[in-house]
Amino acid sequence: MEFDTIAAISTPMGEGAIAIVRLSGDQAFDIADLLFRGVGGKRLKNVASHTIHYGHIVDPKTEQIAEEVMVSAMKGPKTFTKEDVIEINCHGGLVSVNRVLQLLLNNGARLAEPGEFTKRAFLNGRIDLSQAEAVMDLIRAKTDRAMNMALGQMEGRLSKLIQKLRQEILEILAHVEVNIDYPEYDDVEEMTHHMLMEKASYVKKEIEKLLQTSQQGKILREGLSTVIVGRPNVGKSSLLNSLVHENKAIVTDIPGTTRDVIEEYVNVRGVPLRLVDTAGIRETEDIVERIGVEKSRQVLKEADLILLVLNYSDELTSEDENIFKAVEGMDVIVIVNKTDLDQKIDMNRVRELSKHHKLVTTSLLEDQGVDDLEEAIASLFFAGSIEAGDMTYVSNTRHIALLNQAQNAIDEAMQGVEMGTPIDIVQIDLTRTWELLGEIIGDSVHESLIDQLFSQFCLGK
Hints:
By secondary structure, this protein is of the alpha/beta class. It is 45% helix and 18% strand. The protein has helices at residues 28-35, 94-106, 116-123, 129-140, 144-154, 157-181, 193-212, 214-222, 236-244, 287-301, 318-326, 347-353, 370-381, 397-418, 423-441, 447-454, and strands at 6-9, 16-24, 36-38, 51-59, 64-74, 85-92, 110-111, 224-229, 262-268, 271-277, 305-311, 332-337, 358-361. The longest helix has 25 residues, at 157-181. The model is unreliable at 247-261, 280-289 and 384-390 (pLDDT under 50).
């Protein structure tokens, strides 16, 4: 498959030590040789693959030096895109790197679309679709655990398992076809309902195993939406600052200081939290604060985890009780804060209200109880099972939806077997299962979906 030659800046824009401009395609070496002036007049087309060379980038029309560079020359197919690839290492600065990119575009290259380098790796058979999606997961990973999960998917752990399941289904379908088309062959074992049920049960069991990891995988990939709620001045902003380990939120003794929703990503024992500090929930006449309170109530409905903060030095109020009612049935950790002050809260009542929730006491002013809180968060969602390094985690929403559909299709096939439906009819649902699993790795997927997926990538990747 031949494509035109593309170019893009592959490092973040801004000042830095180095910036990289990447070039990929059949004309990569020809275009680079037009601009590159190496020591001794060497041409990149003649150098050994996967070597790096010092020189200058010049404007070929004027021979004026544009930038001092180190150029990596990599010949396909042993590259990320399986095409010829040139990477130009420039000084990190907006002017220098844009000048080099513009010279490439003026001399035959086209500006790459977002994610087009990874898209070419997929289209050229270097990686499958699930591995391509893992590239973006790796870039966006917020914790070591999330990064390790993305690396496992990039290495093809999920792909190999999906391919194995598809092969199992393919063998069943082939066996059924032989029985139907060549019934006269005595040496071919007949595919019975019992045999089909046995094979289908195995495939279903493996799909269920993958789906069991989906909640943990999705949390690692997207972060756990965690909302801090409570009455004003119970220590919500102090809690945010303690978990983030820096002062992101304004902390004062004045109730109602936090008027809006503050969001921050934080790593808690390897669990990425999308942490949201909300305006204190209470009845108020202040119009701005009232808007913040309404936003808090809305965010509450969308949360995966609630951190409900109470004040150890205040009596429980009807507002506290109403917050407990609002979070009923959700994953909640109750935090009784300000234990360094005199006790006024009724802890027996708190325990009664928290009987279905974890309860932690803290003194954020004295940095006490934060470790207990972090442990409670980690154990609530992972209970240590995330440490199993040999597990294959499913984290992508698209993959989870396709696995659920595949599970439904295999269920229908098994129900057909139990009802005594002819095997050639049952194979329709088996074929559907095979196709759905293929969509995960890109073996059977519509071109518009591929374009949509890769458009979400950053430019230059």
